[in-house]
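Internal ticket #5521
Category: modeling
Description: The requester needs a full-assembly model to guide mutagenesis choices. All entity lines are attached below as received. Residue total reported by intake: 256.
Assigned to: D.W.
Attached entities:
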Amino acid sequence: MGKTEPPGSKKKKTQKVAIILSTGSYQREAPTTVLRLAEKLLERDIEVNVFAFEEAVTLTNRDQIEHNEPPSLRKVLGDRHVYVGKFVDQLLRVGLHGAKMDWVTCVLCAQERGVENHQIGGSIVGTLGDLWKFVRGADHVIAIPTYR
Amino acid sequence: MKRFLVVGSRDLTEYVNGKYVPLVVEELRAKGHDVTLFLIENGVIAARDGSKAGKVLNGLSDKGARVYAEDVSCRARGVQTLASGISFSNLDFLADSIAEGFDNIVWY
């Protein structure tokens, strides 16, 4: 597949990106894309702030486990089905030694879904005030739409 | 002139409002803006060679918009050949673009 170059004229380098995510586990591909993109941005020394809204608050539910795949699928998928929270945790740890990612979970959304006290370490339960500060401080805001 | 990045992550034919994505790109081009349409996830379905939506996207390319389809999403959906005017790209391109290239980013 051909390699493509980014647009020619350069502007001031982006330092902070805020991502607003509303899609939860096992709904759509958006969380995976966000994590893939966040990893690439962190590699470029860009700070990433994710605000998890609505069902996205379940992505960082620490009670999710790697469940077994059905025997017929294990040759294809492996023994364990990993969950997204594990990837979030890995990206949060990247910040120890480079550009950091903050992950804020909406408190009201988490309370409604019963996951406020079940968040993985590193996920911060926050408010719309945090979202506002993310947006104010960001060079770019990427809002991933909810699918309805 | 501003530089717009429009990311299409949904199948353009899945929801009624998908039809507005090419219209937005077209209108931005008509106003003289630099526009890149980056298709990812189910958005790449429209880029498949021979599809009706692919012809619409080709029309955007003819009008000066850059249209890309993300390689991993294409492979996952068996999209091996793209409609004319659309090129394969990757997530590194998207990250580089966000890092350095655009004034506005719209995610559909």
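Resolution: model delivered.
Comment from assignee: The mean pLDDT of chain A is 88.
Ticket closed.
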